[in-house]
């Protein structure tokens, strides 16, 4: 679906875009979808079921106080984890931008090798790729 959409875009779009960055963004997007589905199916849903069952057993065997303590402890952990993840996201975003920039320079330089080898920009490109990494 993504590739058919990209092929339908006009030539002006392809000439003004960095192929390397676009390639890396598409790859990161497919990996993210796979990761989200895997985490949801194998981690989040079973954990919610387990917490519900444990709270029910605690409420039945020892009273609702223990079930509430367990639920509040887990909720506190979830809030802390989400806050820490939000804080960490800004660093991850900066890292992804740097990765896109270095990938764009590397792939675009390989795709446009003939044009770059005929000009004096090859040394400038090498310098840019080293500063992006």
Summarize it.
The chain is mainly α and 133 residues long.
Any overview of this molecule?
With 133 residues, the protein is mainly alpha-helical. The protein has a single domain, classed as Up-down Bundle (ABC transporter transmembrane region fold), CATH 1.20.1560. Helix content is 92%, strand content 0%. It is built from six helices and no strands. α3 packs antiparallel against α4 and α4 runs antiparallel to α6. The model has no long low-confidence stretch (mean pLDDT 81).
- Secondary-structure arrangement, i.e. CATH architecture: Up-down Bundle
SS element count, helices: 6
Distance between the termini: 31 Å
Count of extended strands: 0
Low-confidence stretches: none
Assembly of the depicted chains: single chain
- Approximately how much beta-strand content do the residues carry? under 5%
Topology pattern, helix = H, strand = E = HHHHHH
Keywords: Membrane, Transmembrane, Transmembrane helix
GO molecular function: ABC-type transporter activity; ATP binding
Pfam families: ABC_membrane
Protein name: ABC transmembrane type-1 domain-containing protein
Please specify the SSE layout and strand pairing.
Layout: H1 2-8, H2 11-16, H3 19-62, H4 64-111, H5 113-117, H6 121-132
List keywords for this structure.
ABC1_TM_dom; ABC transmembrane type-1 domain-containing protein; 92% helix; ABC transporter transmembrane region fold; mainly alpha
